[in-house]
Design a protein that fits this description.
Keywords: Ligase, Phosphopantetheine, Phosphoprotein
Number of helices: 46
Largest sheet: 9 strands, mixed
GO cellular component, one term: cytoplasm
Oligomer: single chain
CATH topology of one domain: Chloramphenicol Acetyltransferase
Strand order of the largest sheet: 16-15-24-23-25-26-27-28-29
InterPro entries: AA_adenyl_dom, ACP-like_sf, AMP-bd_C_sf, AMP-binding_CS, AMP-dep_synth/lig_dom, ANL_N_sf, CAT-like_dom_sf, Condensation_dom
Number of strands: 57
CATH superfamily of one domain: Nonribosomal peptide synthetase, condensation domain
Distance between the termini: 60 Å
GO biological process, one term: lipid biosynthetic process
Strand content: 15-25%
Radius of gyration: 39 Å
CATH class of one domain: Alpha Beta
Cofactor: pantetheine 4'-phosphate
Shape: flat
Helix content: 25-40%
């Protein structure tokens, strides 16, 4: 067959390019351009002939792509002579411009030429521009093509290329097999990767325009790099990759970096001699350990690149598709590194070469390292997205890469974290960029002197109006003088603190000024504060006086009414203190996100600096154009200081709105209109809400200047303001700790928080408190006049947040805000938010957003907010929610328990018709923190000594007063945790209670626990005896169970076919191996019941599990042998089967394997679900193969085991303890099934042992964290302890693949047999397992059981052991001498032997591989 006249599919690398090109068909994403400039000015006709010869002999340049029925195809369009365009240009400057412009043009991908050329003539030179689409040639191929062209120009006759189409046709048969082989690797390799991280958020308008930037590495540095590579036995590529990774790690603020890199993908000489598209892009993941040296990082780069390259066959688009199906959105990485080390022989011609590797881009930054032979030194080419980076940032990136190389290669032992990206000059420049201008500040200036100056300038101008008397500047000056002198007469001393709690009348600003004139600092208290908070502020501030009309009990300081302070003083001419600029002005209490309120101490100097007319753009505007402001900010927040002082200290009148004006947009509109105020300062959320009111929108027409600060300024607010008013709009930023604000700016093209005010400096810091490079997001730290003195009486917190910043030449006192932002090139700042949505509750970390998302998904919930509240001295996770009507709290808790871990389910749900909102529209969590919670709790006293003892145990564990614990109070509602439940068991032991751990979950109240202990102690009714053991049941049930179990004695060889199988739990660890056994050993049709999940269909979930465990998704079996059907055990009709399908056998592998849980979730799945399975089998006349567990044997007294009591195939009840929810549910399910065999159900119960990794390769289950035995091993490793009773016992090891084979073998046995034990009876000594664990470097010590109990009691209180004890919890026995019930399996072993099955040996090699695998996966970390 002549393939040149046929159309063949694209190769895998070409297909990746095609997919990406289709996403942006109008962009030159994959257009490679080369400009060859000939300094000897050959004639255009000569170049034209060479080009024709090149195309005639180069198949690649003739390739075209067309649409086919099953996807794109490619073909050779053949050679047709052509005439190349010749265009005259004025010089090389115009040539460069044309080169750049032409490189941005995209090809028409279908049925058009994918190569073109243009000849340019210019004085003394001739240039040739060649462009090719990446789908037909990669950079390696194009270098060969360009070299061939130059050879032709030099009169040579180069060797022909190997046909790419021939190679592509030969490679096609291997594509699918290779693709499947690599998929599982990438799923594991990228699991948990921090994908898609950015230095700062993407701008709203982010096009694909690409800009090229070239930078030199330098000859001397290039030589050192080659020498360093040889010394470290790595390639130069690895060194550049490591430098790029260090840079990205710092810019992204993560140690986990993913970089996309193209791989050559030419494994044979034929491929290397073919000009085509072979390159495959692969993600390389790198962990930049902070303490690792740069040399070690280079070694790791080499290892990770080799690892990724070995699996390059699976395309990047497929990887991205797989990740998106797991919930990842967006890019895997925005950063690419391309190493170009091809040779471009010039064949003796005076020619210069320039290249563009694309004309547009979807990623953000590509680093091309050019290693072209003959160039002498390496070159950097940085291709960047123009909408994201600036030329200055790119220049700095190149500089940082060189700096990383110099430091990393200069000192082989230098830790990566010690590499400095920025020079001292860089740091100075960034400080200059983010520093406001320095304005002269009179050292004697204070708020008082500035105000008196305005009163002297404008004595009769209105200064203050509102509810109450109006004041001119003179009147306000005089009134505040009277207040000051009366305060002094009342005992106020200079630099003391005066608190006030006053309604919003004009008397309040007068009082404020009076306090300052008296030389004191004021402490504002809001009238709405609860008395507890008021008393705290008064006590904490040590206020010498409280001015209020309210009746405050326990103020702890003298209280004076405000009205006498306005009277003429007894000494009207008494001198007032000379206030210093470094004296405190006010103390404002702010709660922050956690902790008790803290008093922020602000000095006069910060206010004086901020209020200067030229301090910032907003001040200049109001001083030039302001007519008055309506003040609506609470005096307990520094927004009010801005409203009062930025105006009064600059001669601008203030309209002081009362509470109605603050909260009612109609009233505020009236204030604006009646007073002619044209300045408004309001928080964004409040402003957005007010703009909904017509009267307010009308009033806004007369407002000229608006500052909306205090929270995020949003685009909807900007749009609403533009519709309502032509006013000039400003935004600002600044926590209380930096005196009102640090940045202010007018909003023009984009929303920012403005630029730094005069007298302030801003630094953006990483987690190590180093200045981040330009463009990176960092924590905002503020220095300058406005930085507070600190927190009153909190030296620890002051030292934590107010620090001396030392970074190279920078030495400055700064406040760490906890907010994050990044700098724009013009020096303004963009705000990125903060990260305080993570809290700890009783030592456990909780993501509040995760809780809220779960609760909000509950039907009928409109909004919710989760926060930790302290109630009756105990922390609780509370959920406030709004809905049309209150929800059933039990249903809410049960619903949340299905998605969240136990400690993340809120203790309390509080219904509110509407949640309070802050001014920016966000839920006001501070308001909810003070929201009254009415906990309906009836105290029931203990009725006897045992209940009183249990109350005392609860009290001791929960640290609550014993008298507050009632007999019906739930341990968990009181704040108990799973670890504290273990403490309950251990303390109960000392008081004579026989209590199992699981009982605390099943019976969490004092009374229920005591009652179940009493029953466990021997007060059970006399059981009915049967051959099945002692089972509490009716005589009739006992007889039925005896009949069902006694058949399992003498096995007769013989198997029957299973027919059409319905398999439940098919994606689970055992279920998937049962499916594999059925697929590979039989010819059954198999219907797998799989629930859709995360937008994945049942078939996709099943294929994914098959591939994960077996690297084969059995695609060929789907549709004729294998079928995935939607199903749910909670439905009466458990599986949605196609019409006409008859099921012969149900293999029921599905189960909830949680050992403990609150509520009935476990029982629903394992008992109610089994009822539905039984009903399905009876309806379809199908046999049931039910997968159970040997653990139904539970725990028995040691003495019973010593006299031979055990669980066998003929027994179910041996007086075992079943306090574990899971075991009890599996026990009940077995009982149901065995009883139903009397009603015609054909059923077998397969009790499996301790499922572990495959015997073939040790592969363990995907979700190893849920495996109880793995949890036990984790606890042993993390504590280094094992109780002696356990260390001397034996443990069963059952490889999952062997178990699956045994199940499928015995599933076809005679109908009479009802129970098989599927486990290897050759148990493993636990001591041997401990020896292997110790050999891994985790020494384990066996300790006396009493010592172990004491350890558990104390460790449960130690946060250092959080999570380390979980595996022991199911073994907590509260003092009863219980052991796991021994199991016999003689009947099953004989059956398996007769059917040709033998259990594999658990060898030392297997154990070592198994434990090493767990360790490698991080199970023991």
């Amino acid at each position: 067959m002549d393939i040149h006249h046929n159309r063949i599919p694209l190769t895998r690398p070409q297909h990746q390019i095609w997919l990406a090109s289709e996403s942006c068909p109008d962009k030159a994403l994959y257009t490679e351009s080369v400009l060859l400039t000939f300094d000897n000015a050959p004639a255009p006709a000569q170049l034209d002939r060479a080009l024709n010869r090149l195309v005639q002999t180069t198949e690649t340049l003739r390739l075209r792509v067309t649409r086919g029925k099953d996807g794109p195809l490619q073909y050779d369009a053949g050679y047709t002579p052509f005439a190349c365009r010749v265009i005259p240009l004025s010089g090389e400057e115009e040539l460069t411009a044309v080169f750049n412009e032409q490189s941005r043009y995209c090809f028409d991908l279908y049925d058009s030429a994918l190569f073109n050329a243009v000849i340019y003539t210019l004085p003394g030179k001739t240039a040739l521009l060649l462009r090719v689409h990446h789908i037909v040639a990669d950079s390696y191929a194009m270098a060969a093509v360009y070299s061939r062209l130059l050879a032709i120009c030099a009169g040579e006759d180069p060797q022909p290329f190997v046909s790419f189409l021939s190679r592509a046709a030969a490679a096609g048969a291997d594509v699918e097999e290779e693709r499947l082989a690599d998929r599982g690797f990438w799923q594991d390799y990228l699991s948990g990767a921090e994908t898609g991280r950015l230095p700062h958020p993407m701008p709203d308008q982010s096009g694909h325009r690409l800009v090229w930037s070239s930078h030199t590495v330098g000859k001397e540095r290039s030589d050192r790099l080659r020498a360093f590579a040889a010394q470290q036995n790595v390639t130069p590529y690895c060194i550049f990759f490591a430098a790029y990774a260090v840079y990205l790690s710092r810019m992204l603020g993560t140690e986990d970096v993913v970089i996309i890199t193209p791989r050559l993908n030419r494994g044979t000489d034929e491929d290397r001699n073919a000009a085509g598209m072979y390159t495959l892009a692969v993600p390389v993941r790198l962990h930049i350990a902070p303490d690792a040296s740069f040399a070690a990082l280079c070694q790791e780069v080499q290892a990770q690149n080799r690892l990724a390259a070995a699996h390059k066959g699976y395309g990047l688009s497929e990887i991205m598709g797989d990740l998106s199906r797991t919930g990842m959105a967006g890019a895997l990485s925005h950063f690419t590194l391309s190493y170009q080390n091809f040779t471009l022989p010039l064949h003796g011609l005076p020619v210069r070469c320039a290249m563009h590797f694309g004309g547009a881009m979807t990623n953000l930054l590509t680093l091309h390292v050019l290693d072209w032979s003959g160039m002498g030194d390496y070159q950097f080419r940085l291709d960047y997205r123009a909408s994201y980076y600036t030329p200055h940032e790119i220049t700095q990136i190149a500089q940082m890469l060189r700096a990383i190389l110099d430091q990393g290669m200069g000192d082989c032992t230098l830790p990566c974290r010690s590499i400095e990206l920025l020079t001292d000059e860089d740091k100075f420049c960034q400080r200059a960029l983010l520093s406001g201008p320095v304005l002269p500040v009179d050292p004697n200036d204070t708020i008082i002197t500035r105000f008196r100056a305005q009163a002297a300038l404008h004595p009769d101008r209105r200064a203050l109006s509102g509810k109450g008397p109006s004041y001119t500047f003179r009147e306000l000056d005089e009134a505040s003088d009277r207040v000051a002198r009366n305060l002094i007469a009342a005992g106020v001393q200079p630099q003391s603190y005066v608190a006030f709690l006053l309604p919003r009348t004009t008397a309040l600003p007068v009082m404020l000024l009076g306090i300052l004139k008296a030389g004191a600092a004021y402490v504002p208290i809001d009238c709405s504060y609860p008395e507890e908070r008021i008393r705290f502020i008064l006590s904490d501030s040590k206020a010498g006086l409280l001015v209020t009309e309210a009746d405050i009990t326990g103020a702890g300081c003298p209280v004076i009414a405000p009205s006498p302070l306005f009277d003429p003083p007894q000494q009207p001419d008494a001198p007032l203190p000379a206030v210093g600029q470094d004296w405190l002005c006010y103390i404002i209490y702010t709660s922050g996100t956690t902790g008790k309120p803290k008093g922020v101490m602000i000095e006069h100097r910060g206010i004086v600096n901020f209020m200067q007319p030229d301090n910032n753009e907003f001040n200049r505007d109001i001083c030039a154009n302001g007519k008055g402001i309506v003040a609506v900010g609470s005096v307990c927040f520094d927004i009010s200081m801005f409203e009062l002082f930025s105006t009064l200290l600059n001669g601008i009148p203030v309209v002081f709105a009362d509470e109605e004006g603050m909260n009612n947009p109609d009233a505020l509109a009236q204030y604006i209109t009646e007073n002619g105020a044209n300045i408004l300062h309001c928080t964004p959320s409040r402003l957005l809400a007010y703009l909904e009111e017509p009267s307010f929108r009308e009033a806004m027409r007369s407002v000229d200047i608006v500052l909306a600060a205090g929270e995020a300024f949003t685009q909807p607010l900007l749009d609403a303001l533009h519709r309502a008013t032509p006013a000039r709009l400003y935004n600002g930023y600044g926590p209380t700790e930096i005196t009102i604000g640090a940045t202010v700016g007018r909003i023009r093209e984009r929303i920012t928080i403005g630029s730094t005010i005069a007298g302030a400096r801003i630094y953006l810091l990483d987690k190590d408190r180093r200045i981040v490079p330009l463009g990176a997001t960092g924590e905002i730290a503020v220095a300058g006049y406005g930085v507070a003195r600190g927190y009153l009486g909190r030296p620890d917190l002051t030292a934590e947040r107010f620090i001396e910043l030392r970074d190279g030449p920078i030495n400055d006192r700064v406040y760490l805000t906890g907010d994050y932002g990044y700098a724009l090139p013009n020096g303004s700042l963009a705000y990125c938010g903060r990260n305080d949505e993570q809290v700890k509750l009783r030592g456990l970390r909780i993501e509040l957003k995760e809780v809220e998302r779960c609760i909000e998904s509950f039907p009928c919930i409109r909004q919710c907010a989760a926060l930790v509240r302290t109630i009756d001295g105990r922390e609780h996770l509370c959920c406030f929610y709004s809905a049309a009507e209150p929800c059933d709290v039990d249903e809410l808790k049960q619903y949340a328990g299905g998605f969240l871990t136990r400690y993340m389910v809120p203790d309390l749900f509080v219904y509110l018709p509407d949640l309070p909102h802050t001014s920016n529209g966000k839920i006001d969590k501070r308001a909810l923190a003070n929201q009254a919670i009415h906990v309906e709790r009836t105290y029931i006293p203990p009725r006897n000594a045992r209940e009183r003892t249990m109350c005392r145990i609860f009290s001791q564990v929960l640290n609550l007063p014993e008298e507050e614990i009632g007999a019906t109070d739930s341990f968990f509602d009181l704040g108990g945790t799973s670890l504290q439940a273990a403490q309950i068991v251990l303390l109960a032991k000392h008081e004579g209670f026989e209590l199992e751990y699981g009982r605390v979950f099943d019976h969490p109240t004092v009374r229920d626990l005591v009652q179940c202990c009493d029953l466990d102690g021997g007060d059970l009714p006399e059981p009915v005896l049967s051959e099945a053991g002692s089972l509490p049941c009716t005589q009739q049930e006992a007889a039925l169970l005896r009949d069902a179990l006694c058949r399992n004695r003498n096995y007769r060889k013989g198997l029957h076919p299973l027919g059409t199988v319905l398999l439940t739990g098919a994606t689970g660890f055992l279920g998937i191996h049962v499916l594999y056994e059925l697929l590979t050993t039989g010819y059954n049709k198999i219907y797998c019941m799989v629930r859709p999940k995360n937008n994945l269909t049942p078939e996709k979930r099943l294929k994914g599990s098959l591939f994960y465990y077996f690297e084969n998704n059995f695609a060929e079996a789907f549709g004729h042998r294998l079928f995935a059907v939607d199903g749910d055990l909670m439905r009466e009709n458990i599986a949605s089967l196609p019409d006409g399908v008859k099921i012969d056998t149900v293999i029921h592998c599905a189960a909830d394997v949680s050992h403990f849980g609150v509520g009935n979730r476990i029982r629903q799945t394992n008992v109610d679900g089994v009822r539905n399975v039984i009903a399905f089998c009876k309806q379809h006349d199908a046999a049931l193969i039910h997968i159970s567990t040997l653990s139904v044997g539970g725990f028995i007294e040691r003495e019973m085991a010593e006299i031979g009591v055990s669980l066998s195939e003929q027994r179910l009840w041996v007086r075992q303890d079943l306090s574990n929810d899971y075991l009890e549910s599996k026990f009940t399910a077995e009982k149901l099934i065995l009883l139903e065999t009397a009603n015609g159900l054909r059923a077998k119960i397969m009790r499996v042992g301790n499922l572990q990794g495959r015997i073939t390769d040790g592969e363990f289950q995907m979700n190893r964290a849920t495996n109880g035995f793995t949890k036990l091993l984790q606890s042993i490793v993390r504590t280094g302890l094992c109780p002696q009773s356990m260390a001397c016992s034996w443990i069963n090891f059952s490889p999952v693949d062997a178990v699956a084979r045994a199940i499928c073998r015995l599933a076809g046995s005679a109908e009479e047999y009802t129970v098989f034990h599927i486990f290897d009876s050759n148990d493993l000594p636990v001591s041997k397992l401990l020896t292997h664990i110790s050999a891994l470097g985790y020494p384990v010590r066996a300790v006396d059981d009493r010592e172990f109990d004491e350890f558990m009691l104390h460790a449960a209180e130690d946060p250092a052991f959080n999570g380390a004890l979980d595996g022991f919890l199911t073994r907590v026995t509260g003092g009863r001498h219980l052991i796991e019930t021994p199991c016999e399996s003689g009947f099953s072993i004989r059956a398996l032997e007769q059917e040709g099955f033998l259990w594999p040996e658990i060898s030392d090699e297997y154990l070592s591989a198994y434990l090493t695998g767990l360790d490698t996966l991080g199970a023991f970390q």
